[in-house]
Amino acid sequence: MTSLSFDIAHLLAGGLVLVSFMMLYQDRLSALINVYALHALVLTLSVAWQAQVQHAPHLYVTAAIALGFKAVVIPLVLHRIVRRLGIHRDIETVVGIGPTMLAGMGLVALSMVVILRITPEADPLAREDLSFALSVLLLGLLVMVTRRNAVSQVIGFMSLENGLILAATGARGMPLVVEISVAFSIVIAFIVIGIFLFRIRERFDTVDVGALDSFRGERR
Amino acid sequence: MDLIRALLIQGLQMAVVLLLAPLLTGFVRKIKARLTRRQGASVIQPYRDLIRLLRKEAVLADNASWLFRVVPYLVFASTWVAAALVPTFGGGLLFSWTADLIAIIALLGFGRFFLALAGMDIGTSFGGIGSSREMMIASLAEPAMLLTVFSLALVAGSTQLSTVAALMSSPEVGLRVSLGMALVALIMVAIAENARIPVDNPATHLELTMVHEAMVLEYSGRHLAMIEFASSLKLVLYLSLIGCIFIPWGIAAPGAGLVDYLIGAVAYVAKIAVGAVLLAVFETSIAKMRVFRVPDFLGAALMLGLLGTLLLFVSRSL
Amino acid sequence: MATIDVSFFLWGVAGLLIVAVAAVALGRSAAASNLVYTATFVLSAAMLVMLGLHLISAPGTVLKTTLPIGLPWIGASFKLDSLSALFLGVVNFGGAMASLYGLGYGRHEEAPHRVLPFFAAFLACMNLVVLADDAFAFLLSWEFMSLASWALVVSHHRSQASLRAGFIYLVMASFGTLSLLLAFGLLAGPAGGYGFDTIRDMPHGPMVVAIVFVLMLLGAGSKAGLVPLHVWLPLAHPAAPSHVSALMSGVMTKVAIYGFIRVVFDLLGEPAWWSSAVLIMLGGITAALGILYALMETDLKRLLACSTIENIGVIFVSLGLALAFRSGGMGLAAALAFTAALFHILNHSVFKSLLFFGAGAVINATGERDMEKLGGLIHRMPYTSFAFLIGCVAISALPPLNGFVSEWLTFQAILQSPELPQWGLKIIVPAVGGLLALSAALAAACFVRAFGITFLGRARSDVAAKAGEVDRFSLLAMFVLAALCLAAGILPGFVIDGLAPVTHAFVGGSLPSQAHLPWLTIAPIAETRSSYNGLLVFLFIAIAGWGAAFAVHNFASRRVRRSAAWDCGFPDPRPQTQYSASSFAQPVRRVFGSLVFRARETVDMPPPGDLRAARLTIEVRDLAWDWIYTPISVGIAFAAVRLNRLQFLTIRQYLSLVFLALVTLLLVLALWT
């Protein structure tokens, strides 16, 4: 592999981590959705570049799915949901932005140390992709645990899935069937959560998941 | 002969930054005015302002100490020295080894330290609020800047600006996401350090929203002129810094001929002008943030710097 | 001229001890203060001169001697090598300056008989610690150093705060000595070789090395003020008279670091790589937390003591880097990091003494330590304020003064870290670099606050408004230190070259010689990599500033008019409307406080019509107390109540306890492999 193609792959994968960080930084719901669209776009580019480099045409399909679904359809739907719920202006974070970003840095460092230590003889691109993918995954989880709003939790969940796709494209030879099934299950999960959201909203007049805790009598 | 030429180029560089600084400020103001559909003052208005201020008598508060009168010159001198050490149109300046990038940042810190002291000298509440907020912003901007320097130094293997510039213009650097992050972080720091929107507003007259201007509220006459001059110099410095690190093309190599230097000068002016236009567009399209939103903004710059450094570690060790 | 040997310095120490005894005899007599400080000054200065002569006449030689005192058949051995020489210089220079300052400052002492004997003894013990060449002499002098400084801390024993500070200090010091005792016990091994040479030659297993490292971290770290063992420091250092505070902050913490370097870099062999990671992380955390504590303080001397914690953190980061580079086989980088540490040790001893002297001068002139009651002293105390300003610039790591050079060297060492083999270190070091940059910037904020509130603005109380300049001895001591700050800042190459023998001996490499680089530049690795020239930076700033002032004054305008402050048209004559120390810290408190200190601000705003004053209460907590010390003290109290029952047993029960203990020990012996 030439150094330029490696550099571009590095750039795109690193960009994905960067966009994950932007997600941590956003404090408006609609901005968060836009960043998620950007996340998906960077993922698309990254996957397409991998398809080009690895001469793996089936990855183009993955890229197309990512572009169509994640970068366009899902953000549009989310925007609609948010507007219908009337919460497009607010977001509550459980922890402040500073500590969250710090924790994010720690997670990135952790995933790098782990991946680079356990895969010393793998292909450099795959190693790097894996470490970035693990970072994106952990950052997605972090978004989920630091936000209380159900919509932003959904976005965290979706970005986590983007990390999985990145890992899958980096590790050559993951069959298309598996990818499609992963994508499909994510869509199902998305629909389920979407329905769930409206149910919560109907019952509690809010999408703050804290309301569920108090309903179960767990809040003090 | 070589020494004379080197001295000449160094002297020219010092003169260029000095003369260009007010023009740049005027240019940014003009573009901002045009963007908001105003006619705006002429681009040479800052020169007129400076001369007018220099000629006026200085009004000092009754309890101003000697420090208050010395600080404007110290701030001006340290900023000028720092700006003179950043390669603009030609690399390999005679004194470029005097201070590397870390020392240049520290020189700016020196100026800020004294300016913050001067803000507290009269004992007014506005001066104090300006000083304390300026130091708070600086305490976050400086580490972000240093982490950016770390990533640059990892790529270039040096903190010496001329070496960094020479290496960055060579093709072996390639595309690196860390450099992109460093660039964004550096721009964020530059915005904060130069008291531009969205961190601070250089044109505000609402005292409670301002940081830098509140600090220098008691200055007048020639002292104010020196301080204004120093802030224009700082803007030139940061634009030159971004130019020489991230768009180093056109900088004349040490010992180059006259034509190379001319090309370097044209390229430099073009870079600065583009930077100024971008700054003006950015400033007109964004609102000023609350003071306690600034730490998040600069914290993001800090994280970008750190993330860039970490990513470099990864890509280098493969 | 006769060659100098260790006994000269031991005679000097003996002289100091005699002065201490004489001071007891002199008691409260009026001349005591002058006599004692003159004597300690002469002795310290003489030892400095001898040290200088030794270093010039016989560089690189190691001097040894054994005295027939101490443990029978072993005696007490003393040695002067390059490291001891460096720290001997720090101790005696600090001692000489403190004595000089004391000549003026000591006159205001209410109870000189409580200070003078211990002052001389304290100096003597610190000298002995750095000269000691066996574990016994080292520990004994270390313990006496702690005791003498404890006596100085409680010398103003009437105040409750001093007593509490003294108690906490005593507990921490005993804990530290206990750790050191265990460390040396492990180092000496079953054969019981207490001489440093024997320990050095003995192979130590990895387990022993690890335990000794941790024990040294506890023992020396508690003396130096490493977080979380720092809690005593902001209480004890300020409680002593100011020149003693300067000695404790500027010199005694360095003696603690000497002990750490001596054991970890010299006696212990090669610690595992994780120990350097621990050191670097602890150092970074200490630096950042220390300066944040300092920013929250309103007491000038406590602020200075807290900033000592920060500087200790910076030194420990460099030491950790040196350890990591050394075990990674990178001689040049190790030398760079070690030089940075030693340079910062020198710098900190100079400017921290200067700042404590300045604080002492302020206390002498006003009787106030609380910054909220000071202000405007630049008009009343011009010389003191100038010297204090130099110290503030130096400690804020700003060019062209000395603090910047060592900070710069530390950053250059951090930039070498990508070559390290361990992944953990590669990730930790840049993060700690960010922490160091943060603490350097916060230090600037902290000292803008310290100087701005104390010396600038308008007087916040009557005593501040009526203050006067201090005596000449104090000023002389301050100006000598300020001149040194500048000299070391603009001519760092000579200092680095002077440190080369130490780095060569302890990390096995040294930086290329700096003094003959053109224009006295320093370039630790290579000039294309990084270089800094303090002299030219200083000259450029001076010329540009003076030239600008000259041009403006001659070609534009030099007229000045005095008038009331502008303050946006609403000047308020009451000094209470100025920004105070607490309000200056508010932005930083809001940004970092809720995370680091659990800072809480509560506003009590009476409703309209109510004449009650509004109140803003700030609560700042030290989490080290909450998370470590309170649980420990609760645990101890609990255990004490439980164990109290053992005092009321019958004879038979006591006997059975002894019996059980004996059987248990025998069992351990039987099961020991």
UniProtKB/TrEMBL annotation, chain A:
Stored InterPro entries: HyfE-like
Compartments (UniProt record): Cell membrane
Transmembrane portions of the chain: 6-25, 32-52, 58-82, 94-118, 130-147, 154-174, 180-198
Record key words, sorted: Cell membrane, Membrane, Transmembrane, Transmembrane helix
Highest taxon above the source species: Bacteria
Signal sequence coordinates: none
Protein topology in the membrane: Multi-pass membrane protein
UniProt feature coiled coil, ranges: none
Cell membrane among keywords: yes
Name the UniProt record assigns to this protein: Hydrogenase-4 component E
Record-level GO cellular component terms: plasma membrane
From TrEMBL, chain B:
Signal peptide stretch: none
Record bears the keyword Transmembrane: yes
UniProt subcellular location: Membrane
Domain of life: Bacteria
TM ranges: 6-28, 73-95, 101-123, 144-167, 173-192, 235-255, 261-282, 294-314
Major localization listed first in the record, in broad terms: membrane
Membrane topology: Multi-pass membrane protein
InterPro entries: ComplexI_Subunit1, NADH_UbQ_OxRdtase_su1/FPO
Keyword Cytoplasm part of the UniProt annotation: no
Keywords noted in UniProt: Membrane, Transmembrane, Transmembrane helix
GO cellular component, one term: plasma membrane
This protein's name: Formate hydrogenlyase
Organism: Roseibium aggregatum
From TrEMBL, chain C:
Keywords associated with the record: Cell membrane, Membrane, Oxidoreductase, Transmembrane, Transmembrane helix
InterPro entries cross-referenced by the UniProt entry: ComplexI-like_HydComp, NADH_UbQ_OxRdtase, ND/Mrp_TM
Pfam families in the record: Proton_antipo_M (PF00361)
Localization, UniProt: Cell membrane; Membrane
Transmembrane segments: 6-27, 34-56, 83-103, 115-132, 138-155, 167-188, 208-232, 244-261, 273-296, 303-325, 331-363, 383-401, 427-452, 473-496, 535-556, 654-672
GO cellular component, one term: plasma membrane
Transmembrane is among the record's keywords: yes
Transmembrane helix among keywords: yes
Molecular function as annotated in GO: NADH dehydrogenase (ubiquinone) activity; oxidoreductase activity
Topology within the bilayer: Multi-pass membrane protein
Domain NADH:quinone oxidoreductase/Mrp antiporter transmembrane, residue spans: 132-417
Coiled-coil residue spans: none
GO terms, biological process: ATP synthesis coupled electron transport
PANTHER family, A to Z: FORMATE HYDROGENLYASE SUBUNIT 3-RELATED (PTHR42682:SF3), HYDROGENASE-4 COMPONENT F (PTHR42682)
This protein's name: Hydrogenase 4 subunit B
